[in-house]
Amino acid sequence: MPSEPVSTQFAESRNAYFPRHIPRNETQNIKRIAVLLPFNSTNADVQRQSKGIYNAIQMALFQVGARDVILMPRDATSADPQVIQGIAEDAVRDGAVAIIGPVFAQQVPAVAAKAATVNAPVLAFSTDVSAFGQGAYLMSLTPNSEVERIVDWAAKDGVTRFAMLGPDNASGRNIEQALRQEVAERGGQVVSVEYYTPGNASPQEQARRTATVIEAENRSYPNKVAVLIPESGVQLRSVGSLLRAIANVTPREVRFLGTGQWNDADIWREPSLYGGAFPAPNPTELQDFEKRYQAIYGEAAPRLASFGYDAGALAATLAANARLDAAMIQRPQGWSGVNGLFRFNPDGSVERALAIMQLQNQGGVKIISPPIQAFAAGS
Known about the structure:
With 379 residues, the chain is α/β, with parallel strands linked by helices. Helix content is 36%, strand content 19%. The strands form four sheets. It has a five-stranded parallel β-sheet, with helices on both faces.
């Protein structure tokens, strides 16, 4: 993390980027923020997310009244680290005092390395924990934050035995690691972890083994058992329904837990998941952002747009006050955004104040544990 103020080596040079609409004699106080996103991706959803992030960043600049901050959008679609490093270097030489993006974990080290030459902070959107400690701050809601919150809530609700049934991929393995760590810290035990091939909508064997374990654990430790299902979409509905059908337990006996992937209105209508709980930002401020986004751009905000808004507001606020240094970015009290309260750790990971949402029998969700309103001093 940059420990010194951002260098003006390039920001004040003759080669720095100057927008044509601003007279040259009015540019002395300009703060330039580069935005590195895969704008030209051939993947329609990635392109939509990139557009949404950029739109939200512009919303944030207007909201905070950052008149002396300008954006320098750059396409970061390439998977070649050298190409990405070149794009980041160009942004730095054009006077960037901060970089928002990229979105892919493998791009983060290359961007952070170039930004570090002038102590410019990088606010990236990867949720991959492999990007931690690379010299960038991760804005996105990460699986680690989600697992910590849902395990903490369940443990305080009396759960001591945890099982997991999920897809056999990098994300699933990361979640298992986080689960084991958080459960151990609270004196509980992970009693079963089963993986199935990603995309397998009916993992009968794995579900049956999981069901056998949680049934036995519930007999020995009644009302102290939970199963984590880190899945999303149609796949989650299928796996949840299968496990509920096989397991001879009710939601009151064994808690079904999820991650932020459960924060989907289509999921909330799945009867087999009713009573299940998952972590998510407090929906009140997020819904207000989504309404404003819809009103401005005439379409629904993509999933990552709200994190783009928070990144834009943070970068613009700090740039305007010339406080883009590590001490300010990592201040203990954190920052407030449309996704709620958050703060950064020295390794670049993010802590978020999350609510616990519960699926209701009639469909929909309700908050059963609100997010904290302030981080504890010294924590």
